[in-house]
């Protein structure tokens, strides 16, 4: 069953006034796939998830599961009456219940011992059903919450930063196991994360959020190969954004004057845009009037240099030359290595 958001907007009104947290959100999380909501803190991810979960009432727009309206203004069934399962960052297991009882909680009639054993086994907790949550590690608790959320076989699973409290090595394992279980069960999943690596690793589709809007929705490959804006490109390719204006045959950029030939494609004269640049494609030449080297980080054959403009803007380049802090360089991008996005 797909999960469809139609024209969702949401505002919080509090002591300090009104905050527009979401505007005109419209996308479909495809059936049986994992869709990541990716964005920095405050971009609106949790608000959107909470609207689907029934933890916040929908103010405008609607949310449907498999074509059936689940929530809309005035239509606000509680979480337990929705065909959704929830997994939170901290697991949110019932502390006074054993792991087996936690898993049994959402099952009709409490589920059979066999079914609960099966779920413990699937999530790698075989033999630990009689423990209480505080007797498990953080990673094990997250496995238990995954089992609790998946055992009732919800049509949709909503996960809010489910791996955030687990250390990095375990996180990768947990992520892999989680992806396998969700694919096997064919559960339509929305997973909130602020970590691009996590989104690339686990998602079939990614909705990139910025300031309460979805700025791009696509497969990891789409976002990597065809970013809709410089900011999406910067999130995924480890690239940097440099503002620029075309002035005849040159680009006047915030990092100095660059040749027009560094961009692929054409741009109107006088246009302002953002350049997406990768450190490896930026050469540099010694120049007294250039940018100052403020940090040198050796990477084997080459070094990563941090250059600074007089007004404090920074850019990273890679160089095989012997460079010391305090030296000055002009940036020379490789021909056609830079992508340009017109300013909106
Ligand atoms: P994210 O999950 O991406 O970090 P949120 O959905 O939590 O983003 O927040 C989106 C915006 O709404 C932010 O500007 C945040 O400050 C604001 N916000 C979130 N919850 C509340 C609230 N209860 N009251 C007022 N503003 C809120």
TrEMBL record:
Q: Name one GO cellular component term.
A: membrane
Superkingdom assignment: Bacteria
Q: Name one GO molecular function term.
A: ATP hydrolysis activity
UniProt-listed InterPro entries? AAA+_ATPase, ABC_SmlMolc_Importer, ABC_transporter-like_ATP-bd, ABC_transporter-like_CS, ABC_transpr_FbpC, P-loop_NTPase
Q: Which Pfam families match?
A: ABC_tran
Q: Which organism is it from?
A: Erythrobacter longus
Positions of the ABC transporter domain: 3-236
Q: What is this protein's record name?
A: ABC transporter ATP-binding protein
Sequence intervals crossing the membrane: none
Q: Which UniProt keywords apply?
A: ATP-binding, Cell membrane, Ion transport, Iron, Iron transport, Membrane, Nucleotide-binding, Transport
């Amino acid at each position: 069953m797909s999960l469809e958001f139609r024209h969702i907007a949401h505002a919080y009104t509090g002591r300090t006034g009104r905050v527009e947290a979401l505007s005109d959100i419209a996308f479909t999380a495809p059936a049986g796939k994992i869709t990541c909501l990716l964005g920095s803190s405050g971009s609106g991810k949790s608000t959107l998830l909470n609207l689907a979960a029934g933890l916040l009432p929908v103010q405008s727009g609607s949310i449907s599961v498999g074509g059936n309206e689940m929530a809309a203004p005035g239509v606000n069934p509680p979480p337990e009456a929705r065909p959704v399962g929830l997994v939170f960052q901290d697991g949110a297991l019932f502390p006074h219940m054993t792991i087996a009882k936690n898993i049994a909680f959402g099952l009709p009639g409490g589920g059979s011992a066999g079914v609960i054993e099966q779920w413990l086994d699937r999530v790698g907790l075989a033999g630990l059903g009689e423990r209480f949550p505080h007797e498990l590690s953080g990673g094990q608790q997250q496995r238990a919450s995954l089992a609790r959320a998946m055992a009732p076989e919800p049509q949709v699973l909503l996960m809010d930063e489910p791996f955030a409290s687990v250390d990095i090595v375990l996180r990768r394992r947990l992520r892999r196991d989680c992806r396998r279980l969700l694919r096997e069960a064919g559960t339509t999943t929305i997973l909130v994360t602020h970590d691009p690596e996590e989104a690339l690793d686990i998602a079939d589709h990614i909705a990139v959020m910025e300031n309460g809007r979805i700025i791009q929705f696509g497969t990891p490959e789409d976002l990597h190969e065809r970013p809709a804006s410089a900011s999406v490109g910067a999130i995924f390719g480890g690239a940097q954004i440099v503002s620029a204006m075309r002035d005849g045959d040159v680009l006047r950029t915030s990092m100095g004057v660059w040749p027009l030939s560094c961009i692929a494609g054409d741009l109107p004269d006088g246009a302002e845009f953002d350049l997406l640049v990768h450190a490896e494609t930026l050469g540099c030449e010694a120049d007294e009037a250039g940018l100052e080297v403020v940090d040198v980080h050796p990477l084997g054959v080459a070094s990563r240099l941090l250059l600074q403009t007089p007004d404090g803007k920074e850019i990273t380049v890679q160089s095989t030359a012997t460079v010391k802090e305090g030296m000055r360089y002009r940036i020379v991008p490789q021909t056609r290595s830079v992508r340009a996005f017109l300013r909106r």
